[in-house]
Specification:
Elements: H1 4-11, E1 18-19, E2 24-25, H2 27-43, E3 48-52, H3 56-69, E4 72-75, H4 81-90, E5 93-96, E6 107-109, H5 110-114, E7 130-135, E8 143-148, H6 149-160, H7 165-168, E9 173-176, H8 183-196, E10 200-204, H9 208-216, E11 221-225, H10 227-230, E12 246-252, H11 258-267, E13 272-278, E14 282-287, E15 294-295, E16 300-304, E17 307-312, E18 315-321, E19 323-328, E20 331-337, E21 341-344, E22 347-350, H12 351-358, E23 364-371, E24 378-384, H13 386-395, H14 397-409, E25 420-424, H15 437-445, E26 452-460, E27 463-469, H16 489-502, E28 512-518, E29 527-535, E30 540-547, E31 550-558
Parallel strand pairs: 1-10, 3-4, 3-5, 4-7, 5-6, 9-10, 9-11, 11-12, 12-13, 24-25
Antiparallel strand pairs: 1-2, 7-8, 13-14, 14-15, 16-17, 17-18, 19-20, 21-22, 23-24, 26-27, 27-29, 28-31, 29-30, 30-31
Helix pairs in contact: 2-3, 6-8, 13-14
Length: 567
Amino acid sequence: MMTSEQFWAERARSQALFTTGQSSLSWQQAMAQITALSQYLSDHSVKRAGLYFDDNAHFAIALLACVQAGTDVYLPANLSDENAQWLEQTVDIYLSDEINNQLNIPSLPASAWISQSYSESDRKPINNIAVFLQTSGSTGKAKLIKKDWNVLCLEAQILAAVLPDSVIKDRPVVLGSVSVQHMYGLSFLIMLSMYLGLPLYRQRLIFPELLLVTSQAFKKVIWISSPTLLHTFRQTHDISLAKGHVSAVISAGGILAQTNKDFLHEHICSEVIEIYGSTETGAVASRIKQPYWQFFPDISYSVSQNGLAVQSQRCTTEQLLADAVVEHENGFDLLGRIDRIIKLADKRISLMQLENQLMQHEWVADIHILKHPEGTHLAAWVALTDTGIQEWCKQGRKVIIHQLKNYLAKSQEKIALPRHWRFTTMLPRNTQSKLNPEDVQQAILQPVINPVVLDQKMISADEYWLRIQVPLDLEYFKGHFDVFHLVPGVIQIKWIIELLQQCSWLVQAPLQMENLKFQHFLRPADVVELVFKRDCVRRKISFQCTMQDKKITSGRLVIPDSESDAS
């Protein structure tokens, strides 16, 4: 374990510790803010602080100020009502980018400590504070995990050994798509960056386009991301933006499909590093260029029918990871969670193995397979790639299912082939690559009858704008539009009336329709803009649906007198 003096000395090597590309914050500037905030916490006898930040620099400054002041840190995974109540009952102060007026506890935004005066001091104490993180585990219910500062520093030292010297020699800027409120983001974005003295990009980059554009702004970068985002990269993205700029890609939170790894190797960089672990255990193993996972040097482990049990200096109490593992002479392989190995007709089936196999297909971007909630057969929830969507539009749903089943059948018994399929453009995974069980149940059991509202806003009192997407698995494609999928005109009108009702412009049924025109087909995965304009004097609402300046549908609704003054 490094000493306090060594830790602060290492940080001082960095001339620009935090950056946005346009402006930078040096370690000396950050240290002034850390000292000011630390003094404030000490002067106000703050023992427990809740931290929630979008700005990585503000988070790091607040964390280190708590270390100096001896203030324990509590990290909510999100700002739900439940977590707000938890913070109110637990902490003395809430530190964030901005004040949260919903919390009934003292709050201090970043702007307040930046303006604090402070007294210079050569003494930079490091207290072994407790850091509490939330993890959902396998149940979906938040669980509190305690770490301490010494463990976080030790984790940074061990993780640093994974990065080759060739990656860090040019002091690449660290870019992240993950949240610092979770163990992965905390360990890799904050602790590892500070341990190595690498500049850290302040904003979270949650879209592939943002990672690509931001990478171009720097000589060299490291990506800290997850399969959730990395699986979305396509040839249609402007990959050339990042060419030659990315030194390494680090991925955790799930298994990175081989096809996506190959894509990253070919188009982004040669160093793709996968990390396996949990909030409870910290990082357990890595996989870089070898086919099997390698345990970190401090990990002791045992494998049983209950899963993988691990223990280390960073995790002194043995923790059971409910993952099925097969050991090899030069590493181990993950077969998936124990609870994802099920029995059907006396056959043991690994759902993760099925998912991994289908992820190799060029049509599959993401997938979740489960036992059907109301049956004994398997169900698959599949996100299609751009190529898969093109084939869906060209050949239809039945052909896609037939092809994917045949692909699986090459290595799987008939009982392991999903009988129920649901398709979409993206699975709604959270920042930890997990799916909400309620979303899964709804996707499998509920027919898709409504468009996906991607964005909406009130332009003026009488103009409303929406951006919507046509679902792949729309119920109305069945029957007459079973092969060549398109949205029937009557359904488009149904959606328009329902969207007007949702924005409170329409309560009763319209009196009549005027000047209705259908000019182009509306097809699966199409993203369109819908504009409503209201004329209260003439008692009419006009609508126009367009896609890339191509008019799809337009017309006017005549509304009842009682709604002409509706807000």
